[in-house]
Amino acid sequence: MNGNMSPASASSLGYIAPDGGWGWAVVFGAFISIGFSYAFPKALTVFFKDIQVVFGASYSQIAWISSTMLAAMYAGGPISSILVNRYGSRPVVIAGGVMCGVAMVTASFGNTITHLYICVGVIGGFGLSFNLQPSLAIIGKYFHVRRPLANGLAMAGSPVFLCTLAPFNQYLFNHFGWRGSFFILGALLLNCCVAGSLMRPIGPSVTVERPAQTNGARQRSPADVPEVKVTGRNTCLEEGCMANVDKFLDLSLFKHRGFQIYIVGNTVMFFGFFAPVVFLAPYARSQGCDEYSSAFLLSIMGFVDMFARPGTGLVANTRWIRPRIQYFFSFAIIFNGTCHLLCPIASGYAGLAVYAGFFGVAFGMVCALLFETLMDLVGPQRFSSAVGLATIIECCPVLLGPPIGGALVDTFGDYKYLYLMCGAVMVLAGVFLLVMNVYYYRMLEKEEEIEGGKGCESQNVELGIGVGKRGEPWLGGEEPENDQDTEGDKTRRKGD
């Protein structure tokens, strides 16, 4: 496969990606947007202990706040994809910033935990969805050669924000309480609108086809050409709901073998992906650590994660790793799960700090590669639809993972069972992706060999070139007979 395992390695943007210039400003905007999207639900865990006391909620009930927010962020993927394909990334991110700000301000007036589920979880989660997916999609339009590095830098926004938001939230809580903190955080989230304003559109439009008028004749605009590559469908007006949806969301991705493997592996992985982060600070408190020390564990994890993501992007961009990036992703997931399996061995605050450091490396590796591997499989043009379809499926384990972990804590009264469960799930997902990707690429090589053989045979027929019984080439007319030919062979050749 010419040294590259990816079937979507070649750029199909329809234009030359700048791989720099204003693209770095776009990466900075994505850094802010992605940082809030991933770090904010985790940083909210600082307020959980007080909210749990105020509303008399259990560990499982309180975990539904972050869980609902993450699930809504993933469930909003298809809607976000449709809006991005129709209007572009900039207005969608700005709208998401407004939704997040309004959600947190209204949540500060809540009197029931259900109110928090709706405001913080549902409305805030959908707002984060409008921040996350467009930021990921537009990086693929500005970068091709340096795309793994750009994705790694943008995804580094999550640990940077987690590293700062965790102690900042603890400071806000001590001075303003959780209600005042939510109000201030709502204003802070409006910075996503500034990040969205940096995401200037680039390249041909991939939205609705608009025929150009030339000398009285209707002609297709060159900007509309990539739309055929994105959807693979006739752009004429079609009837039916599914036909209209398929114009903006590429449902044919479900026939893509690599996409199917990616979806199954990630769906299993997400059952154990977020719960260890959500319960890290409560786990430290149960071990006798004070509030600031417990919150500082998230800062340790975020600080290490901050360097792990761009570092992973640099490694993934090398000529040795990029052709094998799917295998690198599988290794990162297995490493992540191994850290959780060893977590119960850690004793005292020093042990938890060491675990947080290794967890930061493993978490950063997975996050840096999570969407890069998807773009590597389907290509940048189909990525917007792919990430929307992937997130709607993954929202179920994202939603159920932390509450299941909280239920284990409620049942056994010990956090070690939560971390053992999450570790086993992550290792299982990593092994599955490793084995299935080996199968996928071997099948892909066989299919390419067969197609290559058919192409050569077709070319030989056009040129009148054949191969004799003993493997010698012959040109035109009948193949020379030999004493080993049967009458059937001679008759067949004459008939041909």
Give an overview of the whole structure.
This protein is about 70% helix and about 0% strand. It has a two-stranded antiparallel ribbon with strand order 1-2. The chain has a two-stranded antiparallel ribbon with strand order 3-4. The radius of gyration is 27 Å and the shape is globular. Helix 4 (about 75-85) crosses helix 5 (about 90-105), helix 7 (about 145-155) packs antiparallel against helix 15 and helix 12 runs antiparallel to helix 19. Strand 3 and strand 4 (about 475) form a beta hairpin. Residues about 1-10, about 205-240 and about 465-495 have low confidence and may be disordered. The two termini are about 35 Å apart. The chain has 20 helices and 4 strands. The chain is mainly α and about 500 residues long. The longest helix has about 50 residues, at about 415-465.
The helix/strand class is: mainly alpha
Total number of beta strands = 4
Q: Please provide the ordered H/E string of secondary-structure elements.
A: HHHHHHHHHEEHHHHHHHHHHEEH
Calculate the mean pLDDT score and round it.
78
Regions with pLDDT < 50 over 5+ consecutive residues?
Answer: 1-11, 205-239, 463-496
General form: globular
Strand content: under 5%
Provide the gyration radius in Å.
27 Å
- Give, in spatial order, the strands making up the sheet with the most strands: 1-2
**Annotation field: number of helices:** 20
Give a quick account of the main beta sheet: strands, pairing sense, barrel closure. 2 strands, antiparallel
| Straight-line N-to-C gap | 35 Å
**Helix content estimate:** over 70%
